[in-house]
């Protein structure tokens, strides 16, 4: 502070009592923001009409007198009193400028409410000044000491109010300049055993991050607060929490927080009761994006359900943080309900009635909780108790009883009831679920067998060459077959054939975040060679490339049978439940089932062709005995071994198919249907569907990379086996073996050696699968034990030298 004087007058010539009188008069003017005769504003920000972006004030400036000049002719004792009182003038000027700036319509309703509450404070302050002036004019004994005595009770409140003004202004200024303004969230409350460092107004400077409520909270957990609405309430809430040791400041913050929350809670009630987002100034905790509902089925990343309405970052007040998701979903559900043609009628009187009912419920719950606590029936950790007490205190500070919490919960239940009734009754959620089970999980698989019979020649072509229109027509014919169970299904028109460019194993491993490079293999999954095979079937048999396969060519081809997926056209609002994420999970299960069914069909075709060759060979032997018994003996021995290995492979494939359908999908789907029937909320429906997929992928070992690799290697071995069978059949179809007896015998011996490798590798991988299932049954799913018993129900693979067991029943 600097002192100065004017040449026209010199108060030093006046007696002390006269100096005190002119100082009191000047201070009364200055406290109203008007310059006095001997106390004046220094050139600078004061007096200011508004808080614009150029204003740079810290909390320390509020207690400074550097903005004023005091005549140096005044008595030093009077100057000391002036220095004590002038900060009140600074605070008042800041408050008036704040109210002028943030009462504009662009500042938002919450800032308007804050300004209204501050206007009430300044009115009381002005009334105090009027009383002081009256006392000064009428009481000859009125002194500067008495004036200071009357001003002291208001000084702390005025200072705290000015600090709030600067905090809001800085938050707005820093937000628009993208600077880092961070405040702690409710998750940063003190934990048991942690040191607590409450924030104080003096340390929260303009360019300094305020301390967290917990000494252990890191900056990574702090978010940038919004400069309007919810962000202002968050700032007021944090300051209210930090003022627990100052009753006067705490009462002031509670007053401002309660008034500022009124417009926010009004918009909250419109959102949770009517689904209307009345937010012209972008200050509510929910933000709306323009996302057409048709985009849900077209774009995996642009989902109506998740992106049309979102929680605005930094705009959630701490007293609503535990209920933010509930608030978001409540309005979402009502919007879905409205967009489907339904109407939500709720008058203002009804909203008031619900608010009153929520108040009564909150009061009753509070009394019950207090009684339980008094009886000692409430037990919680120190951290939970601290967080609960702070949240309860905030809720009470906002509306006096915390009734808005009960109101949110009641509105959430009602919105769920409306939407759930709409989905289940009007839009037939359960029949659609059953239809998806028919087509995607093949619970009525007869139509699919007919479809494969007709479409397999087309599907064994490379997937780029598959004619989808032809495959779609064949599927439509299979679904409309009068002998099929699903011919009367109401949703068969929504089933569409498509091709997935990514192989199944590669897709699953990509989801798991695992490299698709398979040890001892040639590369990615679902790639097989283009060599001709038995009846054109084996060309698309493999899901992965093995090294050193018999008859494998250099070119690897991804066939249509493995790229085949079924898609469903599901309209809004059911697309919110069965969105792209759910359909893709259905498709993964479908592709796995199709692969197993195709392997079963492939092994069956090898038996068919080998049986024909055996019948033909026996007929030829009866007519003309072979001149080269060596080739015949090798041929017969090789055919017998092929039949044995085929039975073992077929037993594993059928066991796996039976396990996935009967032991995994069927009981889990029944549990899901039961959970959906008993669901009370839409979230329960979504969670049931999510749990169903998670359990299916886990129990069908589609989420275990090690089991997936073993499985893919076994599929590769089946492919190698089909190549050996193909070569065997080609040799057996020769008209005369004696003309090429040495060459034929050598080729048969080569096939026998290749078969030995496949046989040994098959036994090894089956045993490895059994051991892995036993290992993971204790950590992932006990259902693995069921599959393990199916694979080796008689201990064949448990015995290294076992030759009986699985084949005994054939």
TrEMBL record:
Subcellular localization(s) per the UniProt record: Cytoplasm, Cytoskeleton, Microtubule organizing center
Biological process per Gene Ontology, one example term: spindle assembly
A GO CC annotation given for this chain: microtubule
Domain Gamma tubulin complex component protein N-terminal, chain residue ranges per copy: 24-426
Pfam families in the cross-refs: GCP_C_terminal (PF04130), GCP_N_terminal (PF17681)
GO molecular function (one): microtubule minus-end binding
Keywords recorded for this protein, A-Z: Cytoplasm, Cytoskeleton, Microtubule
Domain of life per record: Eukaryota
Broad class of the protein's primary localization: cytoplasm
Domain Gamma tubulin complex component C-terminal, residue spans: 429-797
InterPro entries attached to this UniProt entry: GCP, GCP_C, GCP_C_sf, GCP_N
Family of the protein in this entry: Belongs to the TUBGCP family.
Name this protein carries in UniProt: Spindle pole body component
Lineage of the species this protein comes from: Eukaryota, Fungi, Fungi incertae sedis, Blastocladiomycota, Blastocladiomycetes
């Amino acid at each position: 502070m600097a002192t100065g004087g004017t040449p026209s007058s010199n108060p030093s010539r006046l007696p002390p009592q006269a100096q005190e009188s002119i100082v009191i008069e000047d201070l009364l003017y200055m406290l109203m923001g008007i310059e006095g005769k001997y106390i004046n504003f220094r050139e600078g920000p004061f007096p200011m009409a508004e808080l614009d972006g150029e204003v740079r004030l810290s909390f320390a400036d509020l207690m400074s007198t550097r903005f004023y000049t005091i005549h140096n002719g005044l008595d030093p004792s009077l100057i000391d009193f002036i220095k004590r009182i002038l900060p009140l003038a600074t605070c008042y000027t800041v408050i008036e400028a704040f109210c002028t700036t943030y009462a504009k319509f662009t500042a938002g309703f919450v800032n308007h409410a804050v300004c209204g509450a501050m206007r009430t404070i300044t009115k009381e302050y002005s009334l105090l000044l009027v009383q002081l002036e009256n006392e000064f004019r009428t009481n000859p004994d009125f002194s500067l000491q008495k004036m200071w005595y009357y001003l002291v009770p208001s000084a702390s409140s005025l200072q705290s109010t000015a600090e709030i003004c600067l905090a809001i202004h800085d938050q707005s200024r820093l937000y628009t300049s993208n600077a880092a303004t961070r405040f702690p969230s409710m998750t940063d409350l003190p934990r048991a055993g942690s040191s607590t460092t409450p924030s104080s107004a003096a340390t929260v400077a303009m360019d300094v991050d305020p301390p967290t409520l917990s000494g252990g909270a890191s900056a990574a957990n702090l978010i940038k607060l919004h400069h309007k609405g919810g962000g202002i309430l968050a700032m007021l809430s944090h300051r209210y929490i930090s003022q627990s040791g100052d009753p006067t400041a705490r009462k002031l913050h509670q007053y401002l927080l309660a008034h500022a929350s009124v417009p926010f809670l009004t918009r909250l009630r419109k959102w949770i009761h009517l689904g209307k987002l009345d937010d012209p100034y972008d200050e509510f905790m929910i933000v709306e994006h323009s996302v057409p509902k048709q985009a849900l089925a077209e774009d995996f990343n642009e989902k109506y359900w998740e992106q049309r309405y979102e929680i605005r970052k930094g705009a959630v007040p701490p007293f609503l943080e535990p209920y933010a998701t509930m608030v978001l979903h409540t309005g979402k559900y009502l919007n879905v309900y409205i967009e489907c043609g339904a109407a939500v009628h709720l008058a203002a009187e009804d909203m008031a009635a619900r608010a009153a009912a929520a108040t009564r419920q909150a009061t009753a719950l509070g009394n019950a909780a207090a009684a339980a606590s008094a009886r000692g029936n409430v037990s919680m950790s120190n951290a939970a108790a601290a967080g609960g007490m702070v949240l309860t205190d905030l809720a009470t500070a906002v509306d006096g009883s915390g009734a808005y919490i009960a109101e949110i919960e009641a509105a959430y239940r009602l919105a769920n009831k409306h939407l759930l009734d709409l989905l289940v009754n009007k839009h037939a959620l359960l029949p659609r679920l059953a239809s998806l089970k028919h087509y995607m999980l093949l619970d009525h698989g007869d139509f699919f067998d007919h479809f494969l019979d007709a479409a397999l020649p087309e599907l064994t072509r490379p997937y780029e060459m598959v004619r989808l229109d032809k495959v779609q027509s064949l599927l439509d014919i299979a679904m409309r077959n009068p002998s099929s169970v699903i011919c009367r299904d109401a949703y068969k028109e929504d089933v569409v054939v498509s091709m997935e460019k990514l192989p199944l194993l590669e897709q699953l491993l990509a989801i798991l975040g695992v490299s698709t490079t398979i040890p001892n293999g040639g590369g990615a999954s679902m790639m097989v060679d283009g060599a001709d095979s038995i009846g054109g079937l084996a060309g698309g048999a493999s899901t992965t490339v093995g090294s050193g396969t018999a008859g494998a060519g250099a070119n690897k081809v991804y066939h249509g049978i493995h790229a085949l997926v079924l898609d469903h056209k599901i309209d809004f609002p059911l697309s919110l439940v069965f969105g792209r994420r759910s359909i893709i999970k259905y498709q993964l299960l479908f592709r796995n089932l199709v692969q197993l069914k195709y392997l079963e069909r492939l092994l069956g075709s090898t038996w068919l062709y080998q049986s024909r060759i055996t019948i033909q060979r026996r007929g030829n032997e009866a007519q003309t005995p072979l001149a080269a018994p060596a080739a015949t003996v090798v041929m017969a021995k090789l055919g017998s071994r092929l039949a044995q290995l085929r039975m073992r492979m077929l037993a594993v494939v059928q066991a796996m198919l039976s396990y996935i359908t009967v032991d995994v999908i069927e009981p889990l789907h029944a549990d899901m249907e039961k959970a959906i029937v008993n669901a009370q909320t839409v979230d329960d429906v979504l969670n049931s569907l999510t749990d169903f997929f998670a359990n299916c992928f886990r129990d069908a070992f589609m989420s275990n990379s090690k089991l997936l690799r073993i499985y893919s290697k076994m599929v590769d071995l089946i492919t190698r086996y089909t190549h050996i069978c193909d070569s065997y059949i080609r040799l057996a179809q020769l008209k005369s073996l004696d003309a090429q007896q040495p060459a034929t015998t050598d080729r048969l011996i080569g096939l026998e050696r290749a078969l030995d490798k496949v046989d040994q590798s098959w036994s090894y991988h089956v045993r490895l699968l059994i051991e892995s299932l036993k290992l993971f049954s204790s950590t992932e799913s006990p259902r693995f034990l069921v599959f393990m018993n199916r694979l080796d129900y008689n201990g064949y693979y448990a015995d290294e030298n076992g030759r009986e067991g699985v084949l005994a029943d054939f």
